[in-house]
Design the sequence.
């Protein structure tokens, strides 16, 4: 048999199977993919947080220190690269989350559901970026926006809501370490 044929053979994970074929799939194989997808969700959230922090630092540096066309162009190009990485991390998370949902359709008590949520576009924002609360009226939303502009672009603290991606898991982002740090102290 030609080795290239083996390398070109597509690999179908249980999450990519139709529901009737998934029901016949090995429970051990499904559990292995669930662990894989949970790891992918955690990794992509860490990447997303890191890139959002880098974006915030670069924006702050750009607004304070960058003047003239050439430095602004370089800063803009760097911001575009960071935005591309943010979108890639968000897409990776969404793909892993969709696979988890496909694998655990009937299970309402899956533990990962308490840690991971659907990632919406409005959830992908920096820690200090404010989201306007759900306003009852258009006038209230415009008032809050005007207050933000009058306060030098800063939304009043009482109107900030932190995205769930910054809150971590309900276990305190300790994973399976049980309160110990990586050196066994805790």
Sequence:
């Amino acid at each position: 048999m030609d080795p290239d044929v083996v390398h070109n053979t597509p690999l179908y994970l249980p999450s990519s199977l139709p529901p009737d074929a998934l029901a016949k799939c090995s429970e051990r194989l499904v559990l292995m993919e669930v662990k894989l997808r949970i790891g992918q969700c955690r990794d992509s959230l860490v990447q997303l947080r890191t890139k959002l922090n880098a974006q915030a630092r670069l924006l702050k540096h750009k607004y304070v220190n960058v003047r003239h066309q050439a430095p602004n162009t370089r800063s803009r190009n760097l911001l575009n690269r960071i935005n591309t990485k943010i979108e890639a991390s968000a897409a990776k998370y969404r793909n892993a989350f969709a696979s988890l949902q496909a694998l655990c359709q009937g299970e309402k008590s899956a533990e990962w559901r308490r840690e991971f949520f659907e990632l919406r576009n409005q959830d992908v924002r920096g820690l200090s970026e404010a989201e306007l609360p759900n306003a009852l009226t258009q006038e209230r939303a415009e008032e809050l926006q005007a207050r933000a502009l009058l306060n030098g672009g800063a939304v009043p603290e009482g109107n900030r809501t932190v995205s769930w991606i910054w809150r971590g898991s309900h276990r305190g982002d300790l994973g399976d370490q049980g309160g110990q740090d990586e050196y066994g102290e805790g």
The CA atoms of residues 14 and 24 lie 10 Å apart. Residues 14-127 form one domain. Residues 27-65 form the longest helix (39 residues).
